[in-house]
Design a protein that fits this description.
Distance between the termini: 54 Å
Number of strands: 0
CATH class: Mainly Alpha
CATH superfamily: Ferritin, core subunit, four-helix bundle
Radius of gyration: 15 Å
Helix content: over 70%
Structural class: mainly alpha
Order of helices and strands: HHHH
CATH topology: Ferritin
CATH architecture: Up-down Bundle
């Protein structure tokens, strides 16, 4: 029974991670053309989100379909670059923490590797957005 619960928790975390990476990718892509000075940061964040999403697909315990439960409070299309960067950075660091925990639940090496690779992508996104966010208000 404990293994079933552990597997369900891992599958939920992977489904949530997939959905959140996709939401981050979409938010970053929607901002990349709005600001030439932040184009590279948003484009890199979108690329890292795709990498994280794809890493989750390598997990043996990946859900057959996602939960549709991405991070709440996704920025609206009219959000400022700073608001979008805030949401992306905060979502990414929460996601990295969740994936770190999921890797501890994983029994299969393939699942642990997928969680760790996805967590690394989430940390990269956080680094990109947190670093550029401080300057976004002044631009």
């Amino acid at each position: 029974m404990a293994n079933l619960s552990r597997h369900a928790g891992l599958a939920r975390a992977l489904g949530h991670g997939y959905d959140t990476f996709e939401a981050i990718r979409q938010a970053a892509r929607s901002c990349e053309d709005q600001s030439p000075d932040l184009f590279a940061a948003f484009m890199s964040a979108a690329g890292a989100a795709a990498d994280g999403r794809d890493a989750i697909l390598t997990a043996a315990s990946r859900p057959s379909r996602t939960a549709g439960a991405a991070e709440p409070g996704q920025p609206s299309p009219s959000a400022s670059r700073a608001e979008a960067a805030d949401w992306i950075a905060a979502s990414a660091i929460r996601l990295a923490t969740s994936l770190d925990h999921a890797s501890e639940l994983a029994e299969a090496r393939q699942d642990r590797d997928a969680c760790r690779d996805a967590a690394m992508a989430a940390r990269q996104i956080h680094h990109l957005m947190a670093a550029d966010h401080d300057d976004a208000d002044t631009r």
